[in-house]
Design brief:
Structural class: alpha+beta
Number of helices: 3
Strand order of the largest sheet: 1-2
Radius of gyration: 22 Å
Strand content: 15-25%
Helix content: 10-25%
Number of strands: 2
Largest sheet: 2 strands, antiparallel
Shape: elongated
Amino acid sequence: MFKGVQDRELVVNGDYRKVVCHPTDFDYTIKEYFDPLQPLLQTDLMKVQGEDITIEPKKEGETSKLAMIVGFTLPSSSYATIALRELMKHPTSNEFQKELKLE
């Protein structure tokens, strides 16, 4: 049997990840909207079907909402959800998401 670690062959697959990385190609736009179910980005399906984004005009009694649409590129092995969590300063846990309400 093995007498010590030096007698074994250890294989560890994978690579180190950077603790902090900076996004490239960062871009953002601010949009005002009124309907929380209104799509703010054109999806691939909408592109294929030739549908455009149209923001409905404000109806009486509706309050305006602001959205920030961000775009960026991260290196491989980096997670956009973590970058967005840091940007929004909101937790991404299931418990927090369950308590969100559609206004």
